[in-house]
Write a structure and sequence with these properties.
Layout (H helix, E strand, L loop, with lengths): L21 E2 L4 H11 L2 E7 L5 E6 L5 E8 L7 E11 L4 H10 L4 E6 L2 E9 L4 E2 H23 L8 E2 L2
């Protein structure tokens, strides 16, 4: 092996290169494995009325969230999207929540009723993304939920833990 040229990093040995796993459609097994990879505790799993798989997980910091496959085919097949969602209790007005939403363009915040705020992040899988990118999207969702929790905690009538009811 020739020595590297001045200013170049050491060459990477082939054994050090990690193969890239491309995900084009997501399954229940993928969702369960995603929870494990993120260090989240499994809470529940199931299928929507259309057959799309979903899981609920909880992180050590208390954040409980759902990850839902979004499927184009019948009976939960051809699942080319993933939506991650957390729900918070808050009586804050829609205007206040819209203001927080504008501060974090990588997620969506909205009032689902007078006492609930939903936080979601959608990942498009069309033509495939890497498994590492999918995990990074989930990590970004978790980090931004932490920021939302902090913001909501300073509002009147807020519950700072994400919930499922």
């Amino acid at each position: 092996m020739a020595p590297p040229a001045f200013g170049q990093a050491d060459p990477v040995e082939p054994a050090e290169i990690k193969p890239i796993q491309i995900i084009q459609s997501i399954t229940m097994d993928d969702l369960r494995f995603m929870l494990d990879e993120l260090g989240a505790q499994f809470v529940a799993a199931g299928r929507t009325g259309d057959g799309a798989p979903f899981v609920f997980g909880q992180f050590d910091d208390g954040l409980t969230f759902g990850a839902y496959a979004v499927c184009a085919g019948p009976d939960g097949t051809d699942c080319r999207g993933l939506e991650m969602m957390a729900v918070y209790g808050s009586s804050a007005s829609s205007d206040v929540i819209s203001g927080i939403d504008r501060d974090y363009p990588a997620i969506s915040l909205y009032k689902s009723d007078t006492q609930k705020v939903r936080v979601s992040r959608y990942v498009i899988l069309d033509h495939g993304i890497s498994w590492d990118n999918l995990l990074e999207n989930a990590s970004v969702f978790r980090m931004l939920c932490g920021k939302v929790s902090e913001r909501l905690a300073h509002l009147p009538g807020a519950e700072v833990e994400a919930e499922w009811k």
